[in-house]
Amino acid sequence: MGSLSSDFSARMVLIRHGQTAWNVERRFQGRSDIPLNDAGRGQAQVAAQNLTDYQQQIREHTPEFAWELIVTSPLSRAYETGKIIGEHLNLDISGTHEGLQERSFGAAEGLVATEYHWRDIQEQFPDVEPLSEMIQRGINALKEIVAKHPNRHIIVVAHGLWIAQIMTALTGEEHSIPENASVTELPLHTLESYQG
Questions:
Q1: 159 is catalytic
Q2: Looking at 80, 102, 109, 159, which residue is catalytic?
Q3: Which of 23, 91, 102, 115 is the most exposed place for a label (fewest CB within 10 A)?
Q4: What is the Cα Rg of the chain in Å?
């Protein structure tokens, strides 16, 4: 999960949704609304426990700390992950945001992803969403969420490639796609200072 930042009072974490059947089969998922499988629901429970542990860790030096709201991608695999986490933390989902959706892979969605497909994917599938557009809409979404909920401790449930690319853009350090239901802390100062 990385080290806990101490320079900003508000905190945000990014959670990748739990596993789906298409994750297991290594298919391009994108905007296709594939539900969690049973393993994915179990992973969401683990994420919820990790967030509880995280909360307790912060409370050692900030006793009043508590997660305050959950915002998810509208895709069901993210929404259900958020719902499971919320039940564990006694939080309702505060809303969904279109900008948190995974990159659209267009006609490639449903295909088993191979190295060949990843190579020059934009040329093979012209309707794939440009990476730069996904990053910009994702960062815009996070800025809108923070503006709507200032100084709140926020859990965002989104998607693997989305999280990796957003974190890489904001921090300037390469981030790989996180495991299903893993927790990534986003340093809010990187969002505030982003000029891309």
A1: no
A2: 102
A3: 115
A4: 16
